[in-house]
Batch of 3 targets.
Target 1
Amino acid sequence: MLRILLFITCFVVVCYGLFRPEVPPAIFRGADRVMHFSAFLGVSFSARLAFPKLPAWLVWGLLLAFAPISEWLQSVIQPVNRSFNWLDIVANTMGVLTALLCYVIYVKWLHPRLFNQDHGH
């Protein structure tokens, strides 16, 4: 239950960050990409931890689909202040793929009993 709560919290925070009207402050050059990458890394890893019994292809497939769809939705929901950006999609996708790599490492080396239960990571 705690893992599901963690995922829901991550998902809500990511959606708030993506769909709020204000553009996040540019703390440094490329900060927006770092935020996109980090957000999708966190929400993706927490999603897989929250739903270990779901088929891996379904969880990772939905997350990979959400990466570009969320960027498109951002420009639809907040067309005045937010804009579609291909580099944000790349950052989102890289966050998901990095989470996949982290999850494989997590289950294979840190929790090998999960590796046998997980169908395809």
Target 2
Amino acid sequence: LQTIFITHEHLDHILGLYTILNELSDSELEIYVSNVTQKILAQGNEEQICPRSLGISASAFGVSILPIPISKTHALAEGDTFSFGSFSFQVMETPGHSPGSITLYESTHKLLFPGDVVFPQGSFGRYDFPGGNLSTLTQSIKRLTDLDVEVLGAGHMAPVVRNASQQIQLSYRNISSMRW
């Protein structure tokens, strides 16, 4: 294991990170996160990582939320690009589900990894967690409708491997119909 990309700071996306860091403490592991997520992890901000409103705690999974030094992570921001093998990804800041949400887009292969911003079948991420916001999430999903996406690898649910742009459009229509 050499590289980890984290789309946002919620427990279900970073829980294993603490174990990995303990097991590979001396390794050259590279962890990429948004600027916002980097700060939340550095603070060990448990309310942002595992909101009490969920009715669970990190300790229920045998994990303690501890500060992760900024030196252990690399911050990604809007417009950053990076190569991973033969893929060249663009970073998009897509808050709304969480303040630190980022989406990774690969235009040549038409791949999108939106974390919990958008899901198949017209679904989208919750916005009722600390730092979440319906209006902001709607704007983030709107931005994704402008992309040519064939494959959608969302943070939950099965991947969409064909015509994923249609799924994103449906998610946008659904969230746009909600009252703010």
Target 3
Amino acid sequence: MAKRGSASKIFFALAAFGALSQALSLVARVRDSQTDFSVFYRGAVALSQGAGGEFYRAIDAPTGWYNCTPPTGMGVLYGLTPLTPTAAAGVWAAFNLCLLGVGIWLLAGIVKRLEQDGQAYESSFLWASGTLLALGSSCIQVGQFSVLFVACWLLYVWAVAMDRKWLAALSIALPASVKVYPAILAGVPEFLRRHHEVARIALCLVGLVIVVPFFLYGPRSWELAVGFVDYSLLAPGGRVADSADPTAFSNQSIDAVMLRYLTYQEPFHSRAPWLAHLNLGASQVLFVANLVRLAILAVTAFVTSRAARRLTDSPVLVTLLVMAAWCAALYLILPGAKGRYAVYAFPAFLPLLASAATRPHSKWLCLAAGLSLFLLMQLGPDWLNALSISIAAPIFLWTFNLRVLARRVPAFPPSPILRPFARDESELDSQVRCRGN
């Protein structure tokens, strides 16, 4: 136990050092204008100078990347526009480090309020905190919004535990207003059968998507919203279509992986001519990839809603487990999944690390957690990413979290056959749980 405690402290210290070093790296890289934050900052400056809907049609000149962040998301950086790029990057890096600290504090509060398995989550707390820092460092290095989103999702679980209804709604609505795909998690309260929260989330979204942009941009807000939808979401050459491009080895999304193995993509296969592949049509493969995404969402919705319906005696734990499963699903279906977004999967590590802290054969779970962290952060060589091995990590985390939820729900309803052999209702419940496991 002492060795395990020392190992967790060393891991936490190394992860904290890594997060700090990546924050400093962001400040240094901004000078070369080749980071995500550079694009965000230049976009915010352009909007502060009066750019309209054509902003989303333009491409960032130094990088050649799209301006694809919604108006509300650009508004997050609006206050940094008076600063120099280097100073703005320093403020943004410090803000993200603070968010990581807030995330650890929220996680501690959640663990204290768990109705079940609190000891398991407490035993793995340092490992979980180090994992958050490690995954967050990949995001901080490029200046993405990912740490903000994960802090909001942890805040949601904490707010549910504290019965802070409006805070819970805001914590789900904010990520969905800054970028599009976190809107998937707006369905989490519905799957938890917390129907009253859905209306609050809708009201928060209206305020964040309509009122806040109008306050920042004035009459231009409608033009910017239309430009974002037209050029970023619907345009054939927009960001959504570009996210399936398998050329970048770091892209480990479902469609990119399927295109590498099932089609011939000249920009990619010229860089990796040794990779065996089929020659199917790209459009058919992308259609199947989207069907796979829909299947993942459907299975996640079924398992999480079933668990929330049957497990009503542990609302905080169930909220955490449902959030973990949906975060794993979100990263798995994410277009353009890269290491900079890997922190999205952090909540999915929590049940895994808690299981590793308490189960007899924990070495295999520890190995799985470490390997998943390694793959999600894409720490291996380029040839490993070209093989798309990293997609195994979100697949494993997704299936593991669904299994954790499914094992907590009896597989069958209470049977009359069991009742004559049970001395009391508690024994009957025990027999039913055994059948469920």
